[in-house]
Amino acid sequence: MKNYFQPEIETMPVEEIKKLQSERLVKQVKYVYDNVAYYRAKMDEKGVKPEDIKGIEDLYKLPFVEKDELRDQYPYGFLAVPLSDVVRIHSTSGTTGRRVVAFYTAEDLNVWDECCARAIVAAGGSKEDVVHVCYGYGLFTGGPGLNGGSHRVGSMTLPMSSGNTERQIRFMQDLGSTILCCTPSYAAAIGEEITKQGIRDELKLKAGIFGAEPWTDEMRKDIEKSLGIKAYDIYGLTEISGPGVSFECEEQNGMHIQEDHFIPEIINPETGEVLPEGEVGELVFTTITKKAFPLLRYRTRDLCRLTRKKCSCGRTHIRMTKLMGRSDDMMVVKGVNVWPSQIEQVLFRLGYQANYLIVVDRANNKDSIEVNVEKTPAMAADPDYDTAQATAKIVAGLKNMLGIKVEVNIVEPETIVRSEGKAKRVIDRRHLYTMM
Ligand code: DLL
Fold this sequence. Notes:
Blueprint: H1 7-10, H2 14-35, H3 37-46, H4 67-72, E1 88-91, E2 101-104, H5 106-122, E3 130-133, H6 142-153, E4 156-159, H7 165-175, E5 179-182, H8 184-197, E6 207-211, H9 217-227, E7 230-237, E8 242-248, E9 255-257, E10 262-267, E11 281-287, E12 298-304, E13 306-307, E14 319-320, E15 325-326, E16 331-333, E17 336-338, H10 340-349, E18 356-363, E19 366-374, H11 377-381, H12 387-402, E20 407-411, E21 426-428
Parallel strand pairs: 3-4, 3-5, 5-6, 6-7, 18-21, 19-20
Antiparallel strand pairs: 1-2, 7-8, 8-9, 9-14, 10-11, 11-12, 12-15, 13-14, 16-17, 18-19
Helix pairs in contact: 2-3, 5-6, 7-8, 8-9, 10-12
5'-O-[hydroxy(phenylacetyl)phosphoryl]adenosine (DLL) binds at residues 92-93, 135, 141-142, 211-214, 233-238, 242-243, 300, 302, 323, 326.
């Protein structure tokens, strides 16, 4: 069958998926209760025993777990197996405090590879492909995750890691890379360089698997054009395993969550109440097959919507929309909720690319927000391009989208620092939050 790695699982009837989830959940809750003292204490405190969980309909009875608790229990508090069964660790970037370390048994890695293999095959990958991985390698899960998936598919794998764009492009040319895996912002930077060199036709790229940071559909179109590919979204987080928790199929209309391993819920981030399908809220995951670092009802802080609407790719696993923000990255500027992705949308609509930097500041108790954006090379070369007029257009577009006045500076091409990993597009000088 075309484009499925494990058709019997990926297209399993929904009722069977739910049955499988229930069986796995019941076992997993008992396993966690017996092997993680921290969870046992939390469940005891809430008065829930493993016997109370008879299927997915009882999931709501379990307590939530949050990132702070993982940090507090660093490093071994959530480990469910003897250290001698652990074969690998990965870790979050930990910019706001102590890192979270996630542990894997050999079987956990096996499952993770399978999840990434499903994503690669959904993007048209097979053993005939050359998979070019320029997510970072090391503690970050991006590189090792897609690398493992590519091995599993049997594709020739180029473990490039990020950076050194010139060498990336040289390898793409010389070895005929067909599938590119990296952050969307790095894909855009590579696309920009390829356009500059005018060598798109020398490349064999056909698809890209991009994730690890938010990106809009406008940015997708831009990348698809500059690289001449179809661009697929992939989602995941270190705590739950890494990339491949969900992935896009050829429909490019939401990411299928790998429901044989992860049960998703959407909750109201304020109250914790479980929301019905279709409502926007915080995504929560329960892992039902993980052994070393099993998490039950983990709050991701990522905001999205779920849908069970039939997908014409034939996969039956539930889909999540692109992330609509994080319940903790939203900025309140001049009393208004601002998501960086809204600003990006306006810039793209007006023909700019992903080279921008947002600076938020506060003086005399008054907020200011500034958007610095690069002209595209075409704009810079256009004698009719009028900076004052262009600035006014962006200001008006942002006012319309956000309802507030934003200061806009248009700068020359290639003056905003490029990212090789996750792009940092917001500098909030107000330091409204205490560092954790
Ligand atoms: O970013 C894992 C990953 C690697 C996913 C490569 C996809 C590709 P962390 O560093 O733990 O793990 O960061 C997880 O990044 O909670 C989201 O907020 C964000 N994120 C991940 N994928 C996407 C995506 C990896 N496709 C955090 N779209 C998550 C938007 C994403 N945000």
